[in-house]
Write a structure and sequence with these properties.
The complex is a heterotrimer of chains A (about 120), B (about 350) and C (about 200).
Chain A (H helix, E strand, L loop, with lengths): L1 H7 L9 E4 L4 H9 L2 H8 L2 E2 L20 E4 L14 E4 L2 H10 L5 H7 L1
Parallel strand pairs in A: 1-2, 3-4
Helix pairs in contact in A: 1-3, 1-4
Chain B lengths: L5 H8 L1 E4 L4 E5 L2 E4 L5 H10 L9 E4 L19 H17 L2 E3 L9 H7 L8 E4 L13 E4 L2 H10 L1 E5 L2 E8 L8 H12 L7 E6 L1 H4 L3 H9 L8 E3 L4 H7 L8 H11 L12 E6 L6 E3 L7 E3 L13 H14 L14 E4 L8
Parallel strand pairs in B: 3-4, 3-6, 4-5, 6-7, 9-10, 9-12, 10-11
Antiparallel strand pairs in B: 1-2, 2-8, 13-14
Helix pairs in contact in B: 2-5, 6-8
Chain C lengths: L5 E9 L6 H4 L19 H4 L22 E4 L11 H9 L3 E4 L4 H8 L4 E4 L2 H11 L6 E5 L4 E3 L5 E3 L4 H9 L3 H6 L2 H9 L8
Parallel strand pairs in C: 1-2, 2-3, 3-4
Antiparallel strand pairs in C: 1-5, 5-6, 6-7
Classes of the chains: A alpha/beta (about 120), B alpha/beta (about 350), C alpha/beta (about 200).
């Protein structure tokens, strides 16, 4: 989460991209907020949520629409895992944050070299 | 006689009875329960008039279908009646059977595989199970941890044991220093890309080597979490000073003299130098790029500077068909640079990557 | 649990690798607090359009396979989530036996707890049964668990391996919790040794 925030700090979520951050527990959320990570994410245009499994398996209201493409830090890119017809690409948190800012996948190594 | 592996040691220490036909009764130290895979298990206990054998060894938390939006309205504010019923059912079952439950509005609430370690419920050398395949996460602490089905959840509640046949040993050595921006997630994806999603079937994985030692506990959890995506029920990392530092003073970790005694025991939890593994591979972390998946299986990995693969170049018919099917589902053209692939959504979270 | 002894039924071909438990029963059906009633949603996203119409090509929607009791499938069947809803959905549909070159561990285990027999066979033999299964309603396969044999529609016999304890539980429909509770003394004795490790 800290690594993703370090990337989020460098820009804004691209137009047309919906990005969310879901902490793993109440304590992770509390720690992140103590470090100001929530503000970093929110200022960059990410949604900062309550803890849970969320869109990893889309059992709650957080899910992909058919055809939507998602950069996800979860563990399964099976068909329909994040919502029927949803297209999942598994990546690290840093790569997910970088993709959010660019609107497409980016080589995080290049991004840093430029910055 | 050759030495024993970390997995062998934990296995042997938990053997209640060997049944001679390859199955053993294994003692379970810790059981994590969530709302989705437990209702039918509690119902089974009720129907049979059984009680949990050791309720204090079980910890319950709702995580799978709780809303991640504003929760100030509590349970009553959950719109989906089925989600709400599952969570209510868990609360009732915990109250009826005397099981500790972390309520939705508790600061300790979270994904079971995040909350367990945070509470010190997860400790080295223990056997830990949960009705969730990502229980492998807890292997980061040198605990033998794996997912079970609902019938087994009921079995563990009733008997505090599981009937198990022993898996084989598979060591994955990750050498070299991972370059900047190559994370535990990338190492996990690289391993799955290398051995395939069935590569670990029938094995317990042990992750070892300097690149693993260099990982934080969070990184080790990410790595062990995805053992199941490689087909292995469990993955292990031998506990070390980082493990002990993470656990010290956690609410459920041992304290004082018990801590000292436990820590001394935990130091012994390593594979012997002359331990024999049924399978072993080595991966050079220094050569790894950041990775991304292109398909519908976690083994469909490619470097971020790579291109969408071309099914026409795959000789094996079943694999070619699977690749065509995946590209069709994913809406990707063969040969497209991955960096040209535009996205609509970003999700940072899950039991793989939602820690600090 | 229903006993499994002999089974003669139609085999449906599902020639896909890595069939995962999300495919078998998608997450929106995991909100039930019961075991029954999941058969209608078995393979839901492959079987129905988003409007709930049947997808005609999907194997279990074809007239010949609607009553299938056996599935013949590709490698690594049942991978992914540990959800026991997957075998519950298969059983509720009427599937009692799955034949594949390999299974994911947790799913394999879950089958036995629900009276479903998963059979592992070498790829060549699965290929042959897959061809047989393609013949539709004529693809009747007989399974004899006691003798560990499969008889194809042409009368050829294939042998298979199965763990002796699991075989016994299936054949007698045994509840393994009941069996383990008979070993309570051994568990008591083990628990007494835990005093040496108070953190456990």
């Amino acid at each position: 989460m800290r690594a993703a925030a370090a990337i989020a700090r460098t820009g804004k979520v691209a137009a047309g991209v919906n990005a969310m951050v879901v902490p793993g527990s109440g304590l992770v959320k509390q720690q992140a907020e103590a470090e100001g990570l929530d503000k970093v994410f929110i200022e960059a245009g990410f949604d900062w949520r309550e803890p849970g499994c969320s869109m990893c398996l889309a059992m709650n209201a957080d899910k992909l629409a058919p055809g939507e493409r998602c950069a996800s830090t979860s563990n399964r890119n099976f068909e329909g895992r994040q919502g029927r017809g949803g297209r999942t690409h598994l990546v690290s948190p840093e790569m997910a944050a970088a993709a959010a800012l660019a609107g497409h996948f980016v080589d995080i190594r290049d991004l840093k070299a430029e910055a | 006689m050759s030495g024993t592996t970390l997995y062998d040691k934990i296995w042997d220490a938990h053997m209640v009875q060997a049944d001679g036909d390859g199955n053993s009764l294994l003692y379970i130290d810790r059981h994590l329960v969530h709302e989705v895979t437990s209702p039918q298990a509690f119902e089974g206990l009720r129907m049979a008039g059984r009680r949990p054998r050791a309720p204090h060894k079980t910890l319950a938390v709702a995580d799978h279908n709780i809303p991640t939006s504003d929760r100030s309205g509590g349970l009553d504010a959950i719109d989906d009646p089925e989600s709400k019923l599952q969570i209510e059912t868990l609360e009732k079952n915990c109250a009826e059977f005397g099981i500790d439950y972390l309520p939705m509005d508790d600061i300790r609430q979270g994904i079971v595989h995040v909350a367990g370690p945070e509470q010190g419920f997860t400790l080295p050398g223990l056997t830990i199970v949960c009705g969730d395949s990502h229980t492998s996460t807890h292997g980061a602490f040198g605990a033998l941890a794996h997912g079970i089905g609902t019938s087994e959840v009921e079995h563990v509640l009733a008997t505090q044991t599981l009937i198990q046949s022993k898996a084989k040993n598979f060591r994955i050595n990750v050498v070299g220093n991972a370059p900047a921006h190559v994370t535990a997630k990338d190492i996990a994806l690289a391993i799955i890309g290398e051995i395939g999603t069935a590569g670990g079937t029938g094995y317990v994985l042990e992750y070892a080597g300097p690149a693993i030692e260099a990982l934080s506990m969070e990184g080790r959890m990410t790595l062990c979490n995805m053992s199941i995506e490689a087909g292995a029920r469990a993955g292990l990392v031998a506990p070390d000073e980082k493990t002990f530092a993470f656990l010290k003073d956690r609410p459920r970790a041992p304290k004082g003299a018990d801590w000292e005694k436990a820590a001394a025991y935990w130091q012994t939890l390593t594979s012997d130098d002359d331990a024999v593994f049924d399978k072993e591979i080595t991966i050079d972390a220094a050569a790894l790029p950041p990775l991304v998946t292109w398909g519908t299986s976690p083994q469909d990995v490619i470097a971020i500077d790579g291109h969408v693969p071309n099914p026409a170049t795959i000789a094996d018919e079943a694999r070619r068909k699977a690749t065509e099917r995946a590209l069709d589902y994913m809406g990707l053209e063969a040969g497209t640079p991955m960096q040209d692939v535009a996205i609509d959504r970003v999700f940072i979270g899950s039991c793989t990557n939602s820690r600090i | 649990m229903e006993k499994f002894d002999k089974l003669t039924g139609i085999a449906a071909p599902l020639d896909i690798l890595n069939v995962d438990t999300d495919m078998i029963i998608p997450k929106q059906f995991l909100k039930t607090i019961q075991r029954s009633g999941l058969g209608k949603n078995l393979f839901d996203e492959m079987r129905y359009t988003p409007d709930g119409e049947e997808i005609a090509d999907f194997v279990l929607n074809q007239a010949a396979y609607r009553e299938a009791q056996i599935l013949v499938a590709g490698d690594n069947f049942g991978c992914g989530s540990s959800r026991e809803h997957a075998p519950w959905a298969l059983l509720d549909f009427g599937i009692r036996c799955i034949i594949a070159p390999s299974f994911a561990d947790i799913f394999y285990n879950n089958c036995f707890k629900n009276g479903i027999l998963p059979i592992v066979l070498p790829q060549e033999e699965v290929d042959k049964l897959m061809d047989d299964a393609q013949r539709g309603a004529n693809a009747t396969i007989s399974i004899d668990l006691a003798n560990q044999t499969i008889q194809g529609p042409d009368g050829g016999t294939i042998s298979f391996e199965v763990d002796a304890f699991r075989k016994q539980c299936l054949m007698e429909g045994l509840d393994d919790i009941g069996l383990t509770l008979q070993k309570a003394q051994a568990i008591d004795a083990y628990e007494e040794t835990l005093d040496a490790q108070p953190w456990r």
